[in-house]
Each structure stands twice: as structure tokens, then as C-alpha cells.
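Hey, can you fold this one?
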Amino acid sequence: MGLVIRQFSLQMIPMQSELHYTLAGQMQTVWRWLWSKQHGIGKDDRQTLMAEFQRILYSATEMDATIAYDEAVNSETAVEYSSYQTYLEKWCMGTTTALVPCMAE
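Sure. Predicted structure:
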């Protein structure tokens, strides 16, 4: 399980399960977006972009997530895909702090 999930106490196992499902759902949504032909993401770049997204999602602190987001948006791979940068920006703005601590502002 990711660092975000470990922040909850052991007494909240049902909540942990729900959060884990939410994280898995987020990853599946992004992966499907990366594979959609309409977004034009190269096959060789999908795993790199997904790994960058996961670094954001599993960040332990707000600072870590902010750094991971900045690195993901400005990475050598991401700059080739403005659609991905826009998608990531929209995802970030719509994400709650309960899911990713860096999104607090």
C-alpha cells in the first residue's frame, strides 16, 4: 500500500480499503487516458508518464507531491505532450487533499 494509505490508523481499515480502491481507480483512469488514441501519447512514453503520475499520487507530504507534480509536468517526456500536461493540471486541481496531500491550497 502507498504512503498516503499508511497515514491512517489501523482502526480505520474499512476507510483504508476505500482509499486504496480510490487510488487504484485514479491510476486506472490515467492509464486509460494515456492509452486513448485521441490523446496521441506514444506507446513508449506511456509507462514513463504513468510512473510520474504515481509519484504524485503516492507522495507522503504536500511538499513531496508538489515537487513530483512540477517534475511530472516539466519532464522531458511530458513537454512533448501538451494534452498530458493539461490533463495533469486539471486532475490536480480537481483532486482532494484527502487523496493527495499536495493538493491543499
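Confidence is low (pLDDT under 50) at residues 1-21, 101-105. Let me know if you want another pass with a different chain boundary.
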